[in-house]
Amino acid sequence: MSQSAGDGILAGVGLGVTALTVVAIAAPVRDGITTPTVIAALAFALVAFGVFAGRRYGRLERRLALVGAGASLAVVLLSGYALTQGITGATTVPGLDSSISAVLFGFLAAGLSTALAVGDYRAVTPRQLLGQVGLTGRLTVVALVAWVLASFVALSFLQGFTGLVGEPDITQENAVSQLGFALATAGVAVGYVFARGDDRSFFDITWPSRRALGWIIGGLLFLFAANVAISALFSATNVEVAQHTSTQEAAANPELVLVMIPASILIVGPLEELLYRNVVQKSLYDVFSPLSAIAVSSVIFAVVHAPAAATRGIEATLPFLGFIFALSMILGFCYWKTENLVVPAAIHGCYNAIVYVEVLL
User: Fold this and answer.
1) Per residue in 177-189, is it b (16+ CB within 10 Å) or e — as a string?
2) 3-class DSSP state for residue 90?
3) Cα separation, 250 vs 232, whole angstroms
4) Which secondary structure element, helix H or strand E, spans residue 99, and what is its range?
5) Which pLDDT does position 173 carry in this prediction?
6) Whether residue 148 is found in the same domain as residue 110
7) In which domain, by residue range, is 46 found?
8) Do 183 and 56 share a structural domain?
9) CA 120 from centre of chain
10) What does the alpha-carbon distance between residue 167 and residue 149 come to, in Å, rounded to a whole number?
């Protein structure tokens, strides 16, 4: 069976990554942790390793790379579940005084091998892969800069407010912070678009048609259905999910809801969608298929939201990020199908607003 040099390189990288995955997932087994979840994860890791080996040495057809992708994805899900149950596979690194989570390392490596297997199936060349990695890295930096800048601008505004008016109460503090978030996020999004040489036509903002309104209503209903289904799954599997810090603040201070509801509809929903859908996802169309771009932008969206729940530990933070990823996938799909930013912005804003209303009930 013939195979191009490009195939060999991509499959070779995947082979190395899956080898690391096998070693990482095998670590807790070596230490006596033989729960069915970990054993199953190890078995799927070995399957993925075998597929990449077959692809690397020209023994398997390209279409079988999907088997490797499925096996790697199974490792992601199983190792992720193990982490939520407190199975970390803590392993001491030679030469260091601290230990690392072998299961977490395997989880991350399996995520990478999933992407590599999909790339192998789609005949992505090493050159294309480098372009995908480079653009994904740049857009991740853009998203992180927006997050950091939003915190900095909000803090600066709060200091200015204190100097001019006096110490703000919690409602005023939240309102000023929302204004800082709006300016920073919009500034980074618009600045990036113009810096890359595009103009106003890059922004997909049009008055919603009847079709778009249908997508808004349907997307919102589907978002809540997904919320219910995921929550039921987590409850049935004894998975604890961290809450977003803003939801916790609203529960502790119900008066904040009066600010958070309009802010969700007018600021958070529209501007997060501007950045993550119209800028990040649309930019990724340059090097990814639409569905892959949705998935990659959703990973970036979830990563940037990690600090909102990181205080709860990996057991509760990981399911939170999985939940955020799933909701982002729905928003990204709606944006792709309508090519109108108003659709995911309205869905996102209304969804958040309804969540805050539920805090009062």
Assistant:
1) bbbbbbbbbbebb
2) strand
3) 23
4) strand 99-101
5) 87
6) no
7) 5-124
8) no
9) 22
10) 22
Same-domain status, 59 and 179: no
Structure tokens, 285: 């169309």
59, two tokens: 């023994």
Which has the closest alpha carbon to 104: 37, 31, 25? 25
Residue 112 has which token pair? 């990478």
Joined tokens for residue 350:
């209304």
Put simply, whether the predicted model's pTM sits higher than 0.70 gets the answer: yes
* Residue 118, both tokens: 């999909």
Answer yes or no: do 157 and 71 share one domain.
no
Q: Which two tokens stand for residue 345?
A: 């912005």
pLDDT value at position 2?
46
Residue that is written with structure tokens 């372009």 in the block: 131
Q: What is the pLDDT of residue 1?
A: 46
Query: Quick one: 111 and 133 in the same domain?
Result: no
CB 256 within 8 A of CB 176: no
Query: 190, exposed or middle or buried, with CB in 10 Å at 0-12, 13-18, 19+?
Result: middle
Mean pLDDT in consecutive groups of 10 residues from the start of the chain, 361 residues: 61 95 94 93 98 94 96 97 92 70 95 95 91 96 94 90 87 88 94 94 94 96 94 93 83 87 94 97 96 97 86 86 95 97 97 88 74
Q: What is the tally of structural domains in the chain?
A: 2
Report pLDDT for 314. Answer: 86
